[in-house]
Amino acid sequence: MSRAERGRLARGFGKRAEGWAALYLTLKRYRIVARGMRTPVGEIDLIARRGHILVFVEVKARPDLMLASDALRADQQRRIIRAGEWFLARRADLALLDRRYDVVLITPWRLPIHLTGAW
User: Fold this and answer.
1) Which residues is 41 bridged to in the sheet?
2) pTM beyond 0.90, yes or no
3) Residues of the chain with pLDDT under 50
4) Which of 18, 20, 33, 43 falls 20 to 30 Å from 11 in CA-CA distance?
């Protein structure tokens, strides 16, 4: 399998994982505001709202839980924060909400794990 094929499969797996995470959060009474939000300063997998809290969510899908939980690096956290600030600068209707940064871990054959206030 070529590198391009592996990349295409990984992107497809990531999109499916985002879908599972969005469904899981919806079942937990979150409203999905945006998915796969690309900004000039970075991408945010999911943006969700529950009450007065706006949550920027990073989805990590890996073959096992340990790999998934270790996958979020400090530079990714900074990128998500910058992208969230960019998003809020354009959405005045959401700018006054409290903010939180969460992670949803996706592993095969298990329910997603939602880590609130991950950083």
Assistant:
1) none
2) no
3) none
4) 33
